[in-house]
Each structure stands twice: as C-alpha cells, then as structure tokens.
TrEMBL record:
Protein name: Thiaminase-2/PQQC domain-containing protein
InterPro entries given in the database record: Haem_Oase-like_multi-hlx (IPR016084), Thiaminase-2/PQQC (IPR004305)
Domain Thiaminase-2/PQQC, chain residue ranges per copy: 33-161
Pathway noted in the entry: Cofactor biosynthesis; thiamine diphosphate biosynthesis
Highest taxon listed in the record's lineage: Bacteria
C-alpha cells in the first residue's frame, strides 16, 4: 500500500510577503510622473498638486486603517499592524505640512481644493477593503503596495533636493515613506503569520487586492501628471 504524501510545509509569513512584493511589483515605466520628476522635467506645480491630493488620501487612509484595526480586535497581531499604520498616517500628515508650506498653499486653498477622481481611487478602494476585506489579506496587499510606494517616494525625495532645490522640511513627507520602516515590517510578519496559523490568510485573495491597489496607485501618479 502506498504511503500518503506528507503534508506540504506551510509557508512562512516572510515568504508570503516576499512573494507578494515580487509578484505584484508594478511596471515602473508606466509611471509617467515619477520619471519626469526624476529628470527634473515635471513643472514645479506638480508638488502643490501632490500635497493637495495627499491631504485627502492620508485623511481617508487613516480612517480605513483604524476601521481595519477595530475589525481585527479579536486578532491582536493583526489589529496591532493596522493601529501602527493609522499612527503612521497621523505622522505623515504632519510631514505633509512642510510640503504645503513650501508650495505656499494657504489653509483656504487646501480646504477648498477639489480632488481629482483618478487620485482618489486608491483611498476609495482601501476604504472598500476596510469594510469587507479579510484584514490579514489586506495586510499582505498593503505590504506589497508600500514597497512600490516607498521606491517612488525615494526617487521623488532625491529629485526634490537635487533637481528642484526644495528645503529639507518640504522633502520630509516623501522621505518619511522612502526610509526603512522595520516596525511596520515586523508587525506585518506577525499579522500574516497569525493569519496563516489561524487559516484566515488567503494569499490568492491578497494578490487580487494587491493588483488593484497597485493599479490605483499608478492612477494616482498619472492623474497628477495629466
């Protein structure tokens, strides 16, 4: 009698996240704005638009992450991950003020600005995931997206200094996301490992979420470029 095949080893959280980052990496050539900024070819006015649009993105994403943390209340490692993300959005909003000041945006201009639909597709989808997505799968998708977003922010931060001569305070927002975030990585691994151990994580579903997040982020950049 043939012996039953041994159970396949379960993937680790690190392996699942690495696979998501690799598999969902976007086509950098499709991002028209970051390439122009890197070359110094984008008009300086795009930075004001970025600041205005991000004011809405950050506000919305913070609420989404807070809601995901509440939904994951019975799964502490997952809730901790989203709590940290929500705290990060609050810090990012403070950094964004430096960019807004450098672009000479008044409080009235920020309050009355009408955001572009293509720029707000990302936070709208993030809100949809916050309402109905499996939190562990959302954590996987966001980790892949953050890797791509961070690379773009690093390019923009460098160009702001080297090509556009922005002051240090103006570069802080993009520098915040460009720099390493070991706490976020550690909590992401803990959240995903919990999801794998409890059977809540479905990497295939996470990749579906992630593909859309990457597409909507690309839409954000290109909508500013248009």
């Amino acid at each position: 009698m043939a012996r039953p095949a041994p159970d396949a080893p379960r993937p680790t959280a690190a392996a699942v996240l690495d696979d998501a980052v690799r598999s969902l990496a976007p086509d950098t050539d499709a991002n028209r704005l970051v390439a122009r900024i890197e070359e110094g070819a984008a008009p300086r006015s795009v930075f004001a638009t970025l600041a205005l649009e991000q004011h809405h993105v950050i506000s919305a994403d913070r609420v989404s992450f807070q809601h995901l943390a509440r939904r994951a209340d019975g799964d502490p490692p997952v809730a901790d991950f989203f709590d940290l993300l929500a705290q990060g959005e609050a810090l990012a909003m403070k950094q964004l003020a430096g960019l807004a000041d450098a672009c000479e945006l008044s409080e009235r201009e920020i309050a009355e600005y009408q955001p572009r639909p293509g720029c707000q597709a990302y936070p709208s989808y993030a809100a949809r995931l916050a309402l109905g997505g499996e939190p562990t799968d959302v954590a996987i998708a966001l980790t892949a997206n953050f890797a791509a977003w961070g690379r773009c922010c690093a390019v923009v931060e460098t160009a702001m200094r080297d090509r556009y001569a922005f002051p240090e305070e103006a570069c802080g927002f993009f520098g915040f996301f460009a720099g390493p975030a070991p706490d976020v990585g550690e909590r992401a691994r803990a959240a995903v490992q919990h999801g794998l151990d409890t059977g809540q994580a479905e990497p295939a579903t996470a990749h579906r979420y992630g593909r859309l997040l990457q597409a909507y982020e690309l839409m954000f950049w290109n909508s500013v470029a248009d």
